[in-house]
Amino acid sequence: MSWGVYLLDERGRVCDVGRHCEGSAYVPGGSDKAAMQVTYNYGPVIKQVLGTDFVSALDNKIAETVQCELSNAPKALGTERSESYWVPSDGNVGAMLGVMAEWARLHPRAAFRICP
After folding, report:
1. Global pTM?
2. How far is it, in rounded angstroms, from Cα 112 to Cα 62?
């Protein structure tokens, strides 16, 4: 199971970002949309670094209001990924939150939407 993670502009459209291959729903060649699936396995590590659960921390939050927390997560957790995406390692979670921090930097007025 996973959360759907989206960064939406003022009109409710998914923002354009640099090409990425993040999340559990792999798009061949990557995607240039601020959208990904994040495994529930990461929940405990996300709660540890953000201080609350994933949905409470980010759902319906304006990107500029959470960019600092997102940017600090990779510094605290590192970004060295496990061989498996599904492992809730610090590096896997740090890398994923780092991608979200970059999205927030690119679109500070957009809002995150986290869908269970």
Report:
1. 0.91
2. 6
